[in-house]
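Need residues for this backbone.
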């Protein structure tokens, strides 16, 4: 049985391509059911390659069918892909989220950087190092960062780290925890640990200190001190 794609339209090529992948002649009938129908694409830019096999078990020269770039491909096993699809291993999402109400649909992916700032909400400290990165998958934002403060300036009272890349979900009680894996030059009692929470509808981390028998309290400016530094990570929802 020859597996060579028949000449003619892209529709014909697509039938043979599915047949070639599965090795079953009768499976070609399922193409019209939407397994992967490329019949609407026209020949111009992007390339899709297939092997021209005239003798079973013998690979011959690769041929090319050209198609339009940035076309929408729908109907892939009941999944709709909209945007740029990189056959070289990349899947691109649009810059503006095309939100879905389906809990089982991934509608966004983004990664980037942000600058954490130690603050009391009104006044900001000065830092020699302030780096942060994030990865957003759907409504979950994963963050990590490092900050090294050189001057507290006019910072006074309870501390926060501002500059998060997205505002957290405003849904009641959707608080998120942030872990501080490293800290130095703090003025705290030995054995106490630093942590953080992100409250609903905010874009900053409230810096907390495990220093009370009842739980945590807000970390104060004189407990961080000049030259204080910390590494942190966590995630929250938007």
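Answer:
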């Amino acid at each position: 049985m020859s597996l060579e794609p028949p000449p003619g339209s892209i529709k014909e090529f697509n039938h043979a391509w599915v047949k070639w992948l599965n090795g079953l002649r009768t499976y070609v009938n399922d193409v019209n059911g939407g397994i992967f129908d490329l019949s609407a694409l026209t020949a111009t830019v992007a390339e899709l390659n297939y092997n021209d096999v005239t003798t079973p078990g013998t690979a011959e020269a690769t041929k090319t069918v050209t198609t339009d770039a940035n076309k929408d491909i729908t109907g892939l096993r009941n999944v709709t892909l909209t945007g740029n699809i990189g056959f070289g291993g990349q899947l691109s999402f649009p810059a503006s989220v095309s939100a879905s109400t389906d809990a089982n649909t991934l509608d966004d992916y983004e990664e980037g950087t942000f600058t954490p700032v130690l603050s009391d909400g009104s006044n900001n400290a000065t830092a020699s190092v302030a780096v942060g990165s994030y990865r957003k998958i759907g409504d979950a934002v994963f963050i990590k960062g490092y900050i090294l403060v050189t001057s507290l300036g006019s910072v006074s009272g309870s501390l926060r780290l501002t500059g998060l890349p997205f505002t957290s979900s405003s849904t009641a009680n959707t608080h998120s925890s942030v872990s501080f894996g490293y800290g130095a030059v703090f003025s705290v009692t030995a054995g106490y640990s630093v942590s953080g929470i992100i409250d609903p509808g905010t874009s900053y981390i409230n810096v907390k200190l495990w220093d009370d028998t009842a739980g945590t309290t807000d970390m104060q400016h004189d407990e961080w001190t000049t030259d204080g530094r910390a590494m942190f990570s966590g995630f929250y929802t938007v």
